[in-house]
Amino acid sequence: MNIIDELTWRGAINQQTDAEGLKKLTTDKKISLYCGVDPTGDSMHIGHLIPFMMMKRFELAGHHPYILIGGATGSIGDPSGRKTERQLQTMDKVRHNVKALSKQMQRLFGGDSNVTMVNNYDWLSKISLLDFLRDYGKLVNINSMLAKDIVASRLDTGISFTEFTYQILQSVDFLTLHNQHNIQLQIGGADQWGNITAGIDLIHKIKGSDEEVYGLTIPLMLKADGTKFGKTAGGAIWLDAEKTSPYEFYQFWLNQDDRDVIRYLKFFTFLGKDEIHSLEESVANEPGKRLAQRRLAEEVTRFVHGEEALESAQHISEILFAGDIQKLTLTEVQEAFEKVPNVSISAKPENIVTLLADTTDIEPSRRQAREDVENGAITVNGKRITDTKIDLNPKDNFSGKFMVIRRGKKNYFLAKVEN
């Protein structure tokens, strides 16, 4: 199957500058293409993952992807998708983020992959102001720039000259990569259409209108309920394991709505048509088994964090489902309960009612604490407590560092033992 046909089946294409020409090009030969990401932070989140999954698909089809880390453009700030000016980062911060994102990309694509990483600071930083204005600024029409959605959406609130020039800088990126590496296709999010087409316009002005270069954008990802994909009550789902643990990452995918899961399987996994069709049937006929969600969680967690992290996430999930918390290791407890409310306790044994009502405020009063204990609504380290006179010793579990308390079915608290 041609790569464009596959992307079309997966619903992964939003716009193309020349659909027929790109399909013919990718059928006739293996091409080089690129996608960029600016180092606005030290980690990508799952929203950033979408275009890079497409890059991986091109690689698997035999094409040569280039990943551009915007060491230069990241110091300026892309105005797309924003109503206000970005806060400029220090160059030290930009360099730190470049290193972090480069490491993340290497983790995603592997050291032996047919993927090349570049940094636009290497060429944009060498262009003088006069050369920029004479060689590129003279070729860009202001009226054309103002008509682009990126800029037009900011005219009412205002846009600085710095962010206004971002479009030209990204155009220079496409031109440079085309000249140096024969890159013929740029991929980006739906909000990058104006930047991508500006790059194609610049190449055509310099090299001629017959020069074969193309642009392709991915759709804006929304959930079935209309809300933005990748955002949760706890914030973004990061690719960095220090920001979002592999267990939390796995659970995010496992908890996807039946209405979204097949679309996500097409976008975020490399499973073929037959298997996805089979999973689609299971959603329709056996939704309670959640086979599609499990497969989705497995595939994406393995791709981002690796097999070992996936196995750990599954192990934690199985133990928590069974309620046998005491089988968790100290590290697994920290990972599983990092986002639940934290409370502090001493290392000394303490009465259950006192601990719940006075020490931690898990319960609003001693009376409520006694009622919940007597009614079996309190578990400590996976064990149900029904005796209001019992003393709990933190040293009994998890090396004396933690105590996991649950009130009711879903309200977890991680009690950390103070030194």
Defining key terms:
five-stranded mixed sheet; tyrosine-tRNA ligase activity; Rossmann fold; Structural Genomics Hypothetical 15.5 Kd Protein In mrcA-pckA Intergenic Region, Chain A; 14% strand; Tyrosyl-Transfer RNA Synthetase; ATP-binding; cytoplasm; alpha/beta
**Order of strands across the widest beta sheet?**
1-6-5-2-3-4
CATH architecture of the largest domain: 3-Layer(aba) Sandwich
What oligomeric assembly is this protein in?
single chain
Any idea of the CATH class of the largest domain? Answer: Alpha Beta
Biggest pleated-sheet summary = 6 strands, mixed
Note the overall shape: elongated
Count of discrete domains: 3
**Radius of gyration from the alpha-carbon trace, in angstroms:** 26 Å
The poorly predicted ranges are none
What is the share of helical residues? 40-55%
Instruction: Return the average pLDDT rounded to an integer.
Output: 90
How far do the termini sit from each other? 61 Å
Structural class, please?
alpha/beta
Number of helices: 19
- At CATH level 3, the topology of the largest domain is Rossmann fold
Total beta strands: 15
Give the CATH H-level superfamily of the largest domain: HUPs
Portion in beta strands: 5-15%
Motif ('HIGH' region): 39-48
Binding site for L-tyrosine: 34, 166, 170
Binding site for ATP: 231
Catalytic activity: tRNA(Tyr) + L-tyrosine + ATP = L-tyrosyl-tRNA(Tyr) + AMP + diphosphate + H(+)
